[in-house]
Specification:
single chain; 248 residues; alpha/beta
Length: 248
């Protein structure tokens, strides 16, 4: 199994790539606009927990892999486009790590911060993520029609990542076997298996290979909202300007 997984990653890893050129980014954003009327979106982001067996305490901090639901897992961050193609994936973090922590320490976030990703483009995340100029979250407690319209469009666009998780786990049931103890490998090998499954998923998407959709990610932590993140006034202004321009 490990040799097959390594070969898939080595030979086909390029099947997962975040759009770098302006043309590619606009192509992705047009797909999101068609389904949601939300402009400038280059990806929907979220994390999902992939169950693994308890790692050996002699080599790992076992407690760090026990997530908030009480089972051992790795917390996998994924960004997808409107066609459910995976654009970016990070499967290296233990289950106890929060979504926002993984995002703050991701290379993709550094690329946005450094301007590698075009200005005026953003990801969409749920309220577990910090509101940033390149990552838009829903408005908590909306009080105006425009904010409600924005939240509705945001929800339609971000639903793609929930569907992506559902399709990925339906195609590769080893990723959805909590009751059986999950992947029976140490965290590093489990992370590689997740990566290989994501690559094969993208190939299925490219060739329009259908699969039945199941309920998506059930790992959302909506109990954490943006008020618990440090304020970013520039990001608040960017979101408010978008709301006023597009959703009034």
């Amino acid at each position: 199994m490990p040799s097959v997984v390594n070969s898939i990653i080595r030979r086909l890893g390029h099947k997962i790539s975040f759009p770098r050129s302006r043309e590619q980014q606009l192509d992705v954003s047009s797909g999101f606009f068609i389904i949601s009327q939300m402009p400038g979106v280059v990806g929907a982001i979220d994390c999902t927990h992939i169950a693994i067996k308890a790692p050996p305490a002699s080599k790992y901090n076992e407690e760090s892999f026990i997530n908030r639901k009480g089972f051992h897992s790795i917390n996998v961050q994924v960004v997808c486009d409107s066609q459910l193609r995976i654009l970016n994936i990070n499967s290296l973090y233990p289950g106890r790590m929060h979504d926002a922590f993984i995002w703050r320490n991701s290379t993709l976030r550094e690329n946005f911060e450094d301007g590698v990703i075009g200005r005026g483009l953003w990801l969409l995340g749920d309220s577990a993520y910090p509101l940033e100029t390149w990552l838009l979250t829903p408005v908590g407690n909306p009080s105006a029609a425009a904010e409600l319209n924005y939240n509705a469009a945001h929800r339609k666009a971000r639903n793609t990542i929930e569907r992506c998780f559902g399709v990925l786990k339906q195609r590769f049931r080893c990723l959805d076997l909590k009751s059986a103890g999950g992947l029976q490998y140490v965290p590093e090998k489990s992370a590689k298996i997740v990566m290989a499954c994501a690559i094969l998923h993208n190939i299925c998407v490219a060739f329009n290979i259908p699969t039945e959709e199941i309920c998506g990610n059930d790992d959302d932590d909506d109990s954490i909202n943006e008020m618990e993140h440090s304020a970013n006034q520039n990001a608040v202004n960017v979101r408010q300007q978008l709301i006023l321009q597009r959703f009034c």
